[in-house]
Amino acid sequence: MATRAKIPGIGDANMTARSSARNDYRCTIDRNQSGKYCVRIQVHYPRHAWTLGIFFLASSFDRAMKKLEQALDFLQHQEEKLWFWGVDRAEDMGFSAEFLKEAGLRLDRRSEFPRKATNVSLPPERQVPAFVLGPMRRGLAESIETSREVSRGAAVGR
Fold it and tell me: What is the pTM of this model?
């Protein structure tokens, strides 16, 4: 979605700044040792200038993609609550973790995020459009295929 250009003399600077601020999501997927798909999401919320890392596990790629869609929708609509309990009231991180757990998500406390990630930017508090999910799904599927090929190559090379 393109950002609207500011027409001189119409609107105010705060509205323009707010409309151009977009939540940035970075997503990765890989298979863990038990064969489950681990989806990691790192979201940067520019309105409060903070970043939240979460992850979830799924038994199949299709379930991972369905859960990813639900997670993005949850993160889009719960930004204020997540910020309040995660940053403003940081001493009570237990509540924040419980809030995420109810949605099937977990806090990702790992400090490094993989470089190769699928990215998407969305206007705050808006529905996640379906056309955004197609390219994201393809990008994550390609990363799974690439990691499988690397694993096969390493096994054959031994």
Answer: 0.75
